[in-house]
Amino acid sequence: MKEYQTITEISGPLVFAEVDEPIGYDEIVEIETPGGETKRGQVLESSEGLVAIQVFEGTDGIDRASSVRFLGETMKMPVTEDLLGRVLDGSGNPIDGGPNIVPDERRDIVGAAINPYSREYPEEFIQTGVSAIDGMNTLVRGQKLPIFSGSGLPHNELALQIARQATVPEEDDASEGDGGSEFAVIFGAMGITAEEANEFMEDFERTGALERSVVFMNLADDPAVERTVTPRLALTTAEYLAFDKGYHVLVILTDMTNYCEALREIGAAREEVPGRRGYPGYMYTDLAQLYERAGRIEGRDGSVTQIPILTMPGDDDTHPIPDLTGYITEGQIYVDRDLESQGVEPPIYVLPSLSRLMDDGIGEGLTRGDHADVSDQLYAAYAEGEDLRDLVNIVGREALSERDNRFLDFAERFEDEFVNQGYETDRSIEETLGIGWELLSTLPAEELHRIDEEFIAEYYLEDETEAAAVEAE
């Protein structure tokens, strides 16, 4: 292990040093400052005679007199089942005052993509307890389903609700093919404020969810470079628990926008040619390296399911971050500003939301036979009600027919009763579908074109006054 005192330049989070031997990409570096402080970094670029090092703890205190040591290995995460219940910083160091972690092994944080031949198709339902997700945009084990939000919207509350309620699903242990697998949550926070961090920890401790969780915390005043390793540490831990220990792991990453901003900052320091809106041209590849680590492997009991959360700058879903995320992942959940202003909790807007794997995770033996039909009909009726709202603004409600008024009322009740449930309510899929049928029963049975007649006969709730009037005629 050679030691150099050959720093030539310091630029933002980067340190450039001259070397006289080949240095590996991603190699871990220790930099000792004249004040005796040791900082860790990673080789970002290596060329003949010169290396660029990104420093995790920031470059304060580093000067040309600092010593640089190359450790000859890439960054690794110490993994063990004992990580459950622990809180770590963005670099994987414990910050909860607990005992030192004795790892079973140390794993490279870059990870390897799941071999497509060995990848098992995701088709097992995850119950989040949130009707707008379970009923309309079902999450499936092994899926990557992002939440698209905006600045100031309650995506953190939604993330906590999912983490809390999905930690101990009611039927997981009884499901076929589980092999007794347990549920675990990996929570990776990037660039959040101290206030948000306190809210997260209070909720985890209050509800007991921390016992089955591993929390990684990178705060807003932590170095931006650290944000580039936080999700990789979290996913390495998730893969170990899933594929070595048989857990079904739900990985929640928030906020991916802060992660991408860190990529842009590093790219600017390297004087790279920027891509769209100043973000690196390789951001798509970088995000794919993270998102594609979700999935299931044939012959293994566990699974890794991802819910990345991102705040869309300016609520613009054509911005590079949500745009590229949408290409890689299997759908999206939209958190809506208008619904939030109306007091809907959680304010999930189901019309632009989508789960591309939903059809494979619902139905007889998974949720219920009528699930797909109910979801399709709720979507169609709500979409019609939304269109009629625009018409009401022009002609007034009195000008609409009785049928149109029914769909308008349906849209309002759908938001108030189906989507709106609060952040403390945990609904089973049976409750969610029951509420769906209550709402659909406010429409005439002949309007339910997307539901099989056998399900209408079994679940449709006849209005007693209307039924009596029909019999009297």
What would you note in describing this structure?
By secondary structure, the chain is an alpha/beta fold. It has 3 domains: 3-74, Thrombin, subunit H (Beta Barrel); 77-361, Rossmann fold (3-Layer(aba) Sandwich); 371-472, Bovine Mitochondrial F1-atpase, Atp Synthase Beta Chain, Chain D, domain 3 (Bovine Mitochondrial F1-ATPase, ATP Synthase Beta Chain, Chain D, domain3, Orthogonal Bundle). It is built from 14 helices and 21 strands. It has helices spanning 131-134, 155-166, 194-207, 230-243, 256-269, 283-291, 320-328, 337-341, 358-361, 371-395, 402-419, 429-440, 453-459, 464-472; strands spanning 3-4, 7-11, 14-18, 27-32, 38-47, 50-55, 67-74, 76-79, 86-89, 105-108, 119-120, 125-126, 139-140, 147-149, 183-192, 213-219, 248-254, 295-297, 303-311, 331-335, 348-355. Strands 9, 11, 14, 15, 16, 17, 18, 19, 20 and 21 form a 10-stranded mixed β-sheet that branches. Strands 1-7-4-5-6-3-2 form a 7-stranded antiparallel β-sheet, with no helix packed on it. Strands 8-10 form a two-stranded antiparallel sheet. Helix 3 links the parallel strand 15 (183-192) and strand 16. Helix 10 crosses helix 11 (402-419), helix 10 crosses helix 12 (429-440) and helix 11 runs antiparallel to helix 12. The N and C termini lie far apart (95 Å). Mean pLDDT is 89; it is low at 167-180 and 464-472.
